[in-house]
Amino acid sequence: MSAKVLEGKGLAQHLRDEIAREVKLLREHGRPVCLAAIQVGEKPESVLYVRNQRKVCEEVGIAFRLEQLPGTVSQNGLLHVIEELNRDPSVHGIILQLPLPARLDARLAQRAIDPRKDAEGVHPVNLGMIVYGVTQRAPCTAIAAYHLIKSVGLDLYGKEAVVVGHSQIVGKPIGLLLLHDFCTVSTCHVATRDLAAHTKQADVLVVAVGKAHLIKKEMVKPGALVVDIGVNRVPVLDDHGQPVLNEKGQPKHRMVGDVDFDGVKDVAGWITPVPGGVGPLTVTMLLRNVAEAGKGVNH
Ligand code: NAP
User: Fold this and answer.
1) How many domains is the chain partitioned into structurally?
2) Ligand 1 neighbour 210 (Cβ under 6 A)
3) Which of 63, 174, 239, 292 is 20 to 30 A (C-alpha) from 130?
């Protein structure tokens, strides 16, 4: 058997077109939608995220505003900026770029964001709303993975679902979302004694750990729907297992998921690739959360 590869790009484009239409309509009614990003210091990875967020926002017509704060900003200084953005009626979504400098409390800052403007869906109110099945500001990666699962059209009622990884904003919320569809959900983590014993039972297997190729072919039930959320940077090796170097003489890297794609695709029914599976949809869900806020849709 060879699995159907579930690319996120097509679904993401479809959703982005829909968001662009809604945002255009709002703009024509004098209600332009705006996402404000807060960046503390200038860590290269967060500079890259900000650039990408600006690009995707502009593509769908959402205005993007950057609040660049010095790396020396105090916790109170950061909270003050968040409070101002909370009060600003022209701002509909707020995203706090992580990581913050170690002396700042990221969770405290995220909790200070008005839940209605929580673009990433990481405020405790929005995480809690998932228990009710309300997903207007759901955490982006969890809802992206859920969208991909739903796109297959499989009847989830009574299916065995196994989620590997139990982080607050990925693993746990995905488990709750699948429970709403009456899956029988198991969650695996570092203390799980026999991971394969669980994964082999899964009709729906979602993996969000951050360990390259953790899930091998023999751990997957034939015909399963496998969603790989992990993103891991690994060195490119030649036929002799030696690192391949780039033109600057440095080791080349590539992105792989938590699932051994080449092996698992032979047994699974559906599989998401890395890159190109959940990733493009995650960013789209950020746009969706901001657009919902722009429309005034609250829970
Ligand atoms: P995280 O907060 O580090 O959580 C990883 C989870 O995996 C934890 O619950 C951890 O358990 C569990 N775990 C660690 N080793 C394990 C093992 N051997 N077996 C089973 N579970 C194990 O990471 P995250 O934010 O959830 O992200 C997970 C992965 O998804 C990362 O690779 C990240 O880069 C990726 N990601 C991708 C996207 C996307 O858009 N594609 C977005 C976000 C994240 P303990 O806490 O008990 O150690």
Assistant:
1) 2
2) yes
3) 63
